[in-house]
């Protein structure tokens, strides 16, 4: 009599991100997965670790030697906001990637054990499938929205695709004497960081370490660049963008106080649309925004339709929920005070705080 068939077990383990073969297998899995994003890539985990000091980790699920699941994680440390496992850190996406037939339960259980062993009472997955009935987990489907739209076939069509009111602002920006720079040189990086740091200070948010931006640019190569708008030789708006599967993703962008008067941000995003199409992109991914925030309505004004994003959060039993939301009432006073800080002081203290935001 034949022995009964023994089902192949799923093995979940920590990936060795220093092993070139392991990294290559993970990169192939991401490339073949329809929900793969640049924020799943080992390059993103590396950049976050190098640029912020937050450790890169990754869990993999294997069945019969084949990769069936992957969960990238950044271990975020903050003396202000507490400890967090984020998938992935400093990203708008991430979360579980599962092959057909995998349910992810063992990966999530392993993530909970890993977080507990690393004294992280919170896990946040920015995308990916999670059963809302799983104990300890809560789904958020209304807190943030994503914005993606196709790019037009030529410059004039791109302009006319913008809704009338916003199109008028872009036309006004086209009448201003701007110079557009695109690249990743030291000059491009310095201009971008100066503009971005001022922009987030004005919003009441600590700026990320410059090392994070440099690390992303260095590791992404031709899949990332900076577009800067200059007026009378001064950078007034700048954006660092990622390129992924035919889409441009303006990721870290902002403008100085003069940018609004000059409509430099309007010009920046329009120029990025044209630049992306010339690079061969077919879609403009405007990223995520807090629902009903100013950025949310700004993107709607450009004609983008908000699509709710699904985030999942695990809180360890007996632990308080982590609150690092800049729009929460708890942080309203701190934001107001931060907006009043001298820029030099904000830029000195901000990166120390921001590396713990995740």
TrEMBL record:
Name of this protein: FemAB-related protein (PEP-CTERM system-associated)
Domain BioF2-like acetyltransferase: start-end pairs: 167-300
Pfam family, one: Acetyltransf_6
SUPFAM superfamilies documented for this protein: Acyl-CoA N-acyltransferases (Nat)
Gene3D superfamilies: 3.40.630.30
Organism in which the protein naturally occurs: Novosphingobium chloroacetimidivorans
Ranges that cross the membrane: none
NCBIfam families: pepcterm_femAB
Domain of life the protein comes from: Bacteria
Alphabetical list of InterPro entries matching this protein: Acyl_CoA_acyltransferase (IPR016181), BioF2-like_GNAT_dom (IPR038740), PEP-CTERM_FemAB-rel (IPR017469), PG_Glycine_Bridge_Synth (IPR050644)
